Amino acid sequence: MVATLVQLIINGLLLGGIYALISIGLTLIFGVVEIINFAHGEFLMLSMYASFWLFQLYGVDPYLSLFMVIPAFFVIGWATQRIIIQPIIHAPPLNQIFATVGVSMVLQNAALFFWKADYRTVRTAYSTLSLKTGGLMISFPRLVAFVLALLIIAALLIFLKQTYTGKAIRALAQEKRAAMLMGIDIYRMYRIAFGIGIACVGAAGAILIPIYYAFPTVGALFVLIAFVVVILGGYNSLVGALIGGLIIGLVEAFSGFFLSPHLKEAVYFVIFIFILLLRPVGLFGRA
Amino acid sequence: MPTWGRSTLLNLDTISTYYGDVQALRKVSLHVKEGQIVSIVGSNGAGKSTTLNTISGVVQCSSGTIEFLGKRIENLPPHQIVEMGLVQIPEARLLFPYMTVLENLELGSFASRARKETKESLESVFELFPILRDRKNQLAGTLSGGEQQMLAIARGLMAKPQLLMLDEPSLGLAPLLVKQVFETVKRINAQGITVLLVEQNVFHSLSVADEAFVLENGSVVLGGPGKEVLDNPQVREAYLGI
Amino acid sequence: MDMSLNVMKSSWNPFHPRFYFPLALVVFLFILPILPQKTYYQDLILMIFFWGTLAAAWNLVGGFAGQISLGHTAFFGIGAYTSTLLWLEFGLSPWLGMFAGAGLAILVAIGIGVPCFRLRSHFFALATIAFAEVLRYVASYWRGLTQGGVGLLIPFRPALGSFMFHGKLPYAYIALGLMLLIILVSAIIRNSRFGFYLVSLREDQDAAETLGVNTSRCKLIALIISVFFTAVVGTFYAQYLLFIDPDSVFSLPFSIELALLTIIGGLGTVIGPIIGSFILTPLDVLLRGWLGGISAGLNFIVYGIVLVVAVIYFPRGIAGWLKTWYEPLLNRLPGSKLAFAPGGTASSPPYTTRATNPGNPDPPDEQITAPLFKAQSLTKYFGGLAAVKDVSFEINQGEILGLIGPNGAGKTTIFNAITGFLSPDSGRIEFRGKEITDLKPPHKVCLTHIGRTFQLVKPFNNMTVLENVMVGTFSRVRGAKGAREEAIKVLDFIGLLKQRDSLASSLTIADRKRLELGRALATKPELLLLDEVVAGLNPRETEEIIKIIRAISQQGITLFIIEHVMKAIMTLSHRIIVLHHGEMIAEGTPEEISRDKRVIDAYLGEEYLA
After folding, report:
1. Is the confidence metric ipTM above 0.90 for this complex?
2. Which CATH code, of 3.40.605.10, 3.40.50.300, 3.40.50.970, 3.40.50.720, is assigned to C373-609?
3. Which residues of chain B neighbour A170 with C-beta distances below 8 Å?
4. Bridge partner list, C395
5. Residue in B20, B23, B44 nearest the CB of C407
6. What pTM does this model have?
7. Do the Cβ atoms of B44 and C590 come within 8 Å?
8. Average pLDDT across chain B, whole number
9. Within B45-117, where are the H helices?
10. Residue C142's CB: how many other CB atoms inside 10 A?
11. pLDDT in tens, C271-303
């Protein structure tokens, strides 16, 4: 019994790490640019496909593809902010919501058009490898995914804490007008923050492809999870996104086992609704 | 040095600013000469903060010109104006509450021209405000009112300003601290930094001012050397309507 | 103003194009389903009516009330599943099952709406998505109830009672009937007190509350009506296709589609959603045919681009553009020179207020009347800081009390405490002898005859000047005609009668301040709180508005005024109280105040007189 519990905890945490990586990008965007990116999941989907094709056509290992995916998606995020988000930054919420919803529709269906609805995944030499210790089984790709996700998150947090640009981004999220008066070019910071947010979700895609399937609507699945994590952790707290991701991973593992694999999704929606109603700022958020 | 010998650092010429279609500034003209302390006084809603925000580029003026160090700045974005050495310490201080004192100060020297001298600047502001050195790892939001004001001023100094603008630095402070703030302003000025001071508190700000302008409902109604304006009964009229 | 208003007004004269043109359109709609030979086109027409009805239902909540729901599919699905299950299990006719479904959907909507309406727009949208998704899971995985992902099949046994028919025509006419019904309901709402209240709360919820609008209840009623129609159409869908499954009736793209149709057609207008459906439904079917035939998903790419472009560049939709040539078109048709509405402009009695004390500009004798308003030891903390500390004062009937004090003194906090925007931490507020200390939300305070204006004016931008004031008069008069007449009197009094049909957003700041005053006056207050009415006006405008304020006082209304412009408040007020750092430091006549040492200290600094 204990072994089962520990196994569940491990599975949950491993999964949670990836959720955290996806969600942290969303939190960063929402905290700095103050916009809810309804198309966040589609960027995940795109990067999963990107890694898939890099593997399929050029034999690039997904984990190695990170070196290409991360900078590429930073640029994509940067461009998205400039072209689509910037014009609507002062628009009423309705317009903002539907602009990103529209982007989401376009990307989903472009994927459907170009790559069909088939499920794609990457099978490498280590895909089915798993470590066995003391009665526990740890899937190797999931472990690598977890470690990489945490490394990237750590790198992001260090960047934001120690570098000038990182501090400027945090300052902008806390007090916009003062940031302007410090000589910070806030529009440039918006682009950088959006770029980083999309780079994070891009990295998550490359890490995910060995253990999950890519298909045009895969983003929709993960983005709802990401929203739950962001609301749970606190929509302006990066640490909250990390902890929230791990919590949701655990919730999924446990409810999948004790309830039913299908109901686990319903469970975290219920959590989502409760948080929105009872403590909208989330666990670590600030009013 | 007599005033007529100094160069004009900042010049506003018939500036009008609108918020939507509310006219906040009506053809405001004023100037600040190098090395001076210039005060703008006026009651609430007179347009004092709007004047500073227009100068800093946070708000766009609809007509008129602003010149700083001989260059036209009314169409520049805020960060470029800071780069030139025109720094504002905003009303209500607007510190970054969840960052430490040290981080707030470091951000003060974000502009590239100030960044090279961050270390030296830190030393000199710690000398000016020793208590900040003690509190350097404390979160800015947890400081007392007086300490926050000091931090705000120090943060502004970190940007290596040639002209430092302060928006109501004495707001919400106890009388003793108010005195300290104005002492600090004089010290900063003595170090060679030109100061443009916006205040509701007439006595102190006019006492330290070399030159003063009185704003009422968006227009300059009075101007002249600080002491003269202080003694002028029109000031009372502008404030109390009688 | 909306086209629909003209339709309503014009039902007086059947020979005027304002009446017969829309009637002709309706007749055309009735003919439409029988025109085509191919069932393909009949189906298309039916789909147009179907989506039009759904979009119009969504528009009540998303357009009129401005609450962006992305979970309406939940109610559609509940309607479809409820009636279907009742038919399959119990043989209950879908005509009745329809109402059961609607009833259930309404209960669920109340359960969702009440807690969620207080969320900000992005979060409200997210919450509605989440609720709909939960329902989809329930439908997918509660196999015992819904057969899960397999879906439910309704055996085809055509009969009127079983809501199944041969051919498409009966369905098309039912759909048309539903569409016309929702248009009628929308038009009635739009021109009724309820409709005005909905739009006002969309434009500015706080301002609406101060005019007596119970915003929570209005949102809920709009939701209930919207959900009713959505669920009924869900039943219709089930009976038309004879097959439902969770993914098709609980689908997020469905919810998005409703919003898309409405936005492109014209959010918040009566016919916008219908226009949206007439344009986009055929477009969708066409695209699906062409591009979807080439490859799945291509049509949605175009759709998505249309959405993004529409939202960024044409946020007002097509209805707004159509309005500009509807009038000229009508004027060209025969009969347009006829008079269309009876009734003229009988000279109406001048504007009067509720106050029983007409014109007495002098302050009343304090011994005779008890004070109208009393505040005792009001205290309010924000965080650790006392915004207002132990403030006590009285206001006598008919006087003008001024409230002044340097920045951050706590003046607006007092206004907010009085008008129900916040509760004081301690202290007591009495009005006309009754305690109102914790009276909340603000619309209740309005109903006790206390009105207010805001420092930064809050006009209902997308309503005309007349409509703005009508929101106020509706708090005293129920019917639209009466409300309009009263509003015209108010506009006459404040001098905005000429601009009555202009949009509030097009007014100058001076006129917007007047509008704000007029709107508050329309609620017939006994005590009127004015928050910095004079700020931002030039000397001439200031003089004019001071005249109006004096005229208001002469009507017997008691005034409590915050001002920074000293000249104004000194000349207007009978008495003045002075706040500094949240505490009251002086009280007296303007003369006394201007010479009071403490006041001078507070404003000019302690050492000024030293």
Report:
1. no
2. 3.40.50.300
3. 96, 98-99
4. C373
5. B44
6. 0.83
7. no
8. 88
9. 48-56, 78-83, 101-108, 112-115
10. 13
11. 899 999 998 898 888 877 777 666 666 777 877
